Automatic annotation (TrEMBL):
GO biological process terms, semicolon-separated: DNA restriction-modification system
Biased segments, Basic residues type: 437-446
The protein's name: Type I restriction-modification system, specificity subunit S
Pfam families: Methylase_S (PF01420)
CDD domains: RMtype1_S_EcoKI-TRD2-CR2_like, RMtype1_S_FclI-TRD1-CR1_like
Region Disordered, annotated ranges: 434-454
Keyword annotations of the record: Coiled coil, DNA-binding, Restriction system
A GO molecular function held by the record: DNA binding
């Protein structure tokens, strides 16, 4: 990203400041239970990610110590790329990550990390590969320019960014906890709904029924013909249409079928669709369809239910989403140890239902809708706030690398940004020291890991 910078700053390439060492390509057969942890990209992005280990001989250049600067140069844009300071124990560096070697007495490590990450948009836009996996070449990375202020100002900028971005991360972490709080709130609302607490109903007077007692016919599977790449009258729903617990329009594939308008495969307004196969967390999840008749057909991995006069569709849907019913489906699913867990027609038909009078069902649904609408509004506000916070990080970095965060500091400390303290003088020292350290022939030391040496 090109931004206007203070006159005392320079623009220089990343390659003029450091050396890049790529990680080692460890083969799966080299992984072990003990030895050095292997740093992969997921270990930089996720502190809870598991590690593979290596206990063989390892070149010193691939050995990483706490505090070293690394750059992940391959992966998925938006999640994988970026500079990181390693905060773990001694480890082995995997491929697709550069170790960044630089003169720490002349360049502030924190500043360099921020400066590199400020260029991520530019680096990713020029990355090779497809829409998914992409990679930044060493040449592209080395040729990318970064802002380069005097050393004293680098430290001040890094201090300010540490403080400001820590506040942003703290705000982001608090906001990201709210969806889980809302999820628990919705479950508590459902629990109150199916127990009668939400409207003060006496559940002891409710009917004890099974799902088969309150639907017009037995639940039955749909059909899943092979999708076609042209438009047909038959839009076959995909599981993603109902996995959220709400019906999501537009999640379908076109298929060819030979059915009439009266076929059971058509989804009607007020039908409830239950997923009969999915992961254990989602098997039995349901959604209520409210829309025009015969707009969709439903697939083999769903069952369809239509309530009779004893229940309103919204109340049955709330019951199916409640934790006791979700647990009932999980406990009765088959194939949980290998294949996709499934529930059959008998399990769905025998689903226990506590059934209040129609008037109570209507009132319960009204109150749940009211509370859920309130939760939805809060969730939307949180999502909007998260978007603003995410933009705030880039805004703060942009200000920092335009020199705005240190404008007053430069006025107060002219002696620290001029003469022998200037960016020009600093860059010359870096070039001189790097040239002096550059060996005629590079020798790579090989050492055994601690485990292999024992």
């Amino acid at each position: 990203m090109s931004v206007e910078k203070p006159t005392k700053w320079l623009q220089t390439s990343i390659g003029s400041l450091c050396n890049l060492i790529n990680g080692r390509a460890f083969k799966p057969k080299e992984w072990s239970e003990a030895g050095l942890p292997i740093i992969r990209i997921q270990n930089l992005n996720n502190p809870n990610a598991t590690y593979n280990h290596y206990d063989g001989e390892l070149a010193d250049k691939h050995r990483i110590e706490n505090g070293e600067l690394l750059f992940a140069w391959s992966g998925t844009p938006g999640t994988s790329f970026g500079a990181h300071v390693w905060k773990g124990e001694t480890a082995a560096l995997n491929q697709h990550i550069f170790k960044i070697e630089f003169i720490e007495a002349l360049i502030d490590k924190r500043f360099l990390r921020y400066a590199i990450n400020q260029t991520l948009d530019e680096l990713i836009s020029g990355a090779h590969g497809g829409v998914g996996l992409r990679h930044v070449t060493k040449g592209k990375f080395e040729a990318t320019d970064v802002a380069f202020p005097p050393l004293a100002e680098q430290k001040v900028i890094a201090d300010k960014l540490d403080t400001l971005l820590a506040q942003v991360e703290n705000t982001n972490a608090r906001l990201e906890r709210i969806p889980q709080i809302l999820k628990r709130f919705r479950q508590s609302v459902l629990a109150a709904a199916v127990s009668g607490r939400i409207n003060g109903s006496d559940i002891s007077k409710w009917d004890r029924a099974q799902l088969i007692d309150i639907v017009t016919e037995k639940p039955r599977n749909g059909r899943s013909p092979k999708g076609v790449n042209y438009e047909t009258p038959y839009r076959n729903l995909t599981l993603s249409a109902t996995t959220s617990g709400q019906f999501l329009d537009g999640n379908f594939k076109y298929v060819e079928l030979d059915i009439g308008d009266d076929s059971y495969l058509w989804v009607k307004n007020g039908d409830i669709l239950i997923q009969r196969a999915n992961t254990l967390d989602y098997v039995g999840i349901s959604a209520l369809y409210r829309g025009p008749d015969n707009a969709y057909v439903y697939p083999d991995l769903m069952m369809k239910c239509t309530t009779n006069e004893r229940a309103i569709p919204e109340f049955l849907h709330l019951t199916l989403l409640s934790e006791p019913t979700r647990k009932y489906f999980r406990d009765n699913a088959t194939g949980t140890s290998g294949n996709m867990p499934k529930i059959n027609q008998k399990t769905v038909s025998e689903t226990p239902i506590s059934l209040p009078p129609i008037a109570d069902q209507t009132e319960i649904v009204r109150r749940v809708d009211q509370l859920f609408a309130h939760a939805d509004r809060i969730e939307q506000q949180v999502n909007n706030a998260l978007a603003r916070v995410n933009n705030l990080t880039q805004s703060i970095l942009a200000k920092a690398f335009r020199g705005e965060l240190t404008e007053q500091w430069r006025k107060d400390n002219p002696e620290l940004i001029s003469g022998e303290n200037s960016a020009e003088a600093l860059l010359e020292r870096i070039k001189a020291e790097r040239a002096a350290k550059k060996p005629g022939v590079r020798r790579t030391k090989i050492r055994k890991t601690e485990q292999a040496a024992k």
